[in-house]
Amino acid sequence: MNDIAILDYKMGNLFSVQCALNFVGIKSIITDDIEIIKNSKSIIIPGVGAYPEAMKRIKEKKFDKIIYEFNEKKKLIIGICLGMQLLFSESYEIKKTKGLGLLKGDVKKFDEKKQNGSNTSFNVGWNEILLNSKKNIKNNYLNSLNKKKMYFIHSYHINTFEKSIDTSSSFFYKKKFVSSVEKNNICGFQFHPEKSGPDGLKIYKNLKKNLLNYESAI
Amino acid sequence: MNIRIIPKLDIKNQNLVKGINLEGLRVLGDPRKFAETYYKEGADEIIYHDVVASLYQRNNLTSLIKNTSENIFLPMLAGGGIKDINEVEAILKSGADRIFLNTAAIDNPNIIDDIVKKFGSSTLVVSLEVIKSDNKFICRKDFGREETAKELVSWIMEVEMRGAGEIIVTSIDKDGTGLGFDLTLAEKLSKNLKVPYILNGGISSIKQIDDLLNCSNPSGIAIGSALHYSYIDQSFKKKDFMDGNIDFLKKNKNYRNFGKLKISNIKNYLKKKFKK
User: Fold this and answer.
1) Which CATH class is domain A4-217?
2) Which of A23-32, A157-166, B68-77, B251-260 comes out lowest in average pLDDT?
3) Which of A74, A81, A125, B159 has the fewest CB within 10 Å, making it most exposed?
């Protein structure tokens, strides 16, 4: 049995995710085979690209059904970048598109003024993650990573409609946005932990611990 | 401000190479060794450029990218001689996050639209190899070998309009010289560019970076020779180097006027500069 199935819908850098999992000793497979996915302990939804196209492919491959099934069984679901955005209710990228709706919130475009006056909506580079310090927030992935820099590449960001699911926030120029979320068995990162050097790998190490904890709990 | 410091590794066959003004490529060794060192020193991204791909009409990077992805967890930008969507797909599949184009974009600008449509703006960087000629900046292709009719500003505007997510500009006049990036060119870019841009060519000291940041606001600074020669200077071991012309390396000499430039020192400088 694989620890993690990396959902392959041909969008994004799946190989790098697998390399990071290998590095920390998590057994994974990149696959679109429903049976193999079903038999995995948890899933990662990766993704880079446009929201409507991603949702279309998720449905074509019947990934949506299996993701809901995982959620009912309280198995771990991890979304990265676009993969995290897909977990939310809807997105306004290109056209209004319904997401998986496991988390309440929507996805909107940055529209910030650069210092030299030109508009920019594209956040590429390293930004600090500021951990949510509220006491009732449980944060199983980002321990000791407060104010560490992670690699972001996106022009859309999430707005959460649920309280206490945002585990960290970051700044794009002066705009504060939610950079990671966690709710029960679901978690998501706007940045790419697998591209964020040794600090990013710590998130994968925490994931390994969480996998073990979940196994014993189920 | 989060300016990325990006080691740029020029690749010929399986070797790291470096030239001057994009010419006279000297073999420096195994690119993975250099990449690993830069990762440990805190690089923000790695660029792999197959510098003979355009000439030989094939890109040779996928195995190197795959190999690198296994133990270097950094964003990777790769390019050189990419001609079509299939090649883009193969490079991304092997672990690169983004690709860059120069020659193919000049020969057939529609390829920019096609790649943006399929992979999104965030995946595509357009590369410009720029040379100063009669006080104008003209773009070249085939790793600086071929002249084109593309003038810098009009080409930039077209590339932006077609949806490039970022632009990397190489100053051919400064490349490999260690004399600093062309400041007139930097100012021109800062005035005319809307998308984020990376500057490449000539940078070998913190003073030069400071001068550059006082007249432009790049999203990244790419550095080749200065980092490579610092690394060779510090940790030269014959067994680290593979085939090719290694006579130069065996002499264990630093090259020209390159001092010791370390990524960590640049990072400290940036931290101080933008704290104010």
Assistant:
1) alpha beta
2) B251-260
3) A74
Option in A15, A114, A116 nearest B95 (CB):
A15
Task: List the domain boundaries for chain B.
Answer: 4-275
Task: Decide if A194 is catalytic.
Answer: yes
CB-CB under 8 Å, B74 with A151: yes
By C-alpha distance, the chain B residue nearest A197 is B73
Please give the single-letter amino acid code of residue B137: F
Please say if the pLDDT value at position B238 is more than 50: no
Residues of chain B with Cβ-Cβ distance to A127 below 8 Å are 2
Q: Count how many residues are written for chain B.
A: 276
DSSP code, position A103: E
Any alpha helices (H) in chain B, and if so which ranges? 31-41, 53-56, 62-71, 85-93, 103-107, 110-119, 152-162, 183-192, 206-213, 225-235, 247-250, 263-275
pLDDT bucket at B257, cuts 50 / 70 / 90: low
| Disruptive mutation site among A118, A152, A172, A195 for chain B (greatest number of B CBs within 10 Å) | A195
What residue ranges in A12-155 does DSSP mark as E strands? Answer: 28-31, 42-45, 77-80, 88-91, 97-98, 103-109, 112-113, 119-120, 123-128, 130-131, 149-154
Asked if residue B150 lies in contact with residue B133, where contact means CB atoms within 8 angstroms, the answer is: no
Q: Determine contact: B39 vs chain A, CB below 8 A.
A: yes
Instruction: Evaluate whether ipTM surpasses 0.90.
Output: yes
Contact A126, A145 (CB under 8 A): no
For residue A117, the model assigns a pLDDT of 46
Q: Please, what is the average pLDDT of chain B? A: 90
**CATH T-level fold of B4-275:** TIM Barrel (3.20.20)
| A147-170 pLDDT per residue, tens | 999 999 998 999 999 988 999 999
Tokens of A123: 């956040």
Closest CA to A67 of A98, A93, A99: A99
The mean per-residue pLDDT over the stretch B48-54 comes to 90
- B10 annotated active-site: yes
Contact A13 B121 (CB under 8 A): no
> Does the CB of A120 have a partner CB in chain B at under 8 Å?
yes
* A174–B contact, CB cutoff 8 A: no
Instruction: For residue A49, give the nearest of B4, B94, B120 by CB distance.
Output: B120
Q: What ranges do the domains of chain A cover?
A: 4-217
Q: In this predicted model, what pLDDT tens digit does every residue of B32-48 receive, in sequence order?
A: 999 999 999 999 999 99
